Write the structure tokens for this entry.
Amino acid sequence: KFTFFLLFVICMPLFLETNIILAIWLKEVPSYTVIFLRLILITSIFDAISNPLIISAMATGKVKIFELIIGSILLLILPFSYLILKLGGAPYSVFIVHIFFAIVAYIARLIIIRQLISISLKEYIINVIYKCVFVMCLSIPLPLYLKHILDDNLSSFLLISLTSVIASVTAIYFVGLDISEKKYIKSKVLDYKGIVK
């Protein structure tokens, strides 16, 4: 959950302002670069939130079946990407295939991990997936609205980026975190203030 929240705070302004970021960086933006970057951001989030599940599986020492099933699923990315491109799919369709199989692999990891460490899928869905989705739904509307009504320029880039960070951090704190997590964050902030002083 924390991995998702941290990445989401960073990735949302990058996702919304991909056009202007690439325009500033590259001057002339090649075809498909914008959608490539956006799909890579989505892929990186899925890969990152899967890491704790991978570490949990490794900790049990029973990784043979885990690696076999997940590895087999991820290997399907290559032939399916080739098939879609052969059938005339756009270059970015490779990333869509990757995201699809990353989701399938994530679900498979959850099912396998449930057996390895007796995790409650119901609790995981409520405390992790539901909260992550809820935070996303609360954070996106305002920056997206500003993106819709404002022109692409440096001022709007700064405003939308700032709004994205504030909206996501606010939603994370008030909706994404439980009481114990809020206390932990507060204690870390107070410790940091003490070090600064």
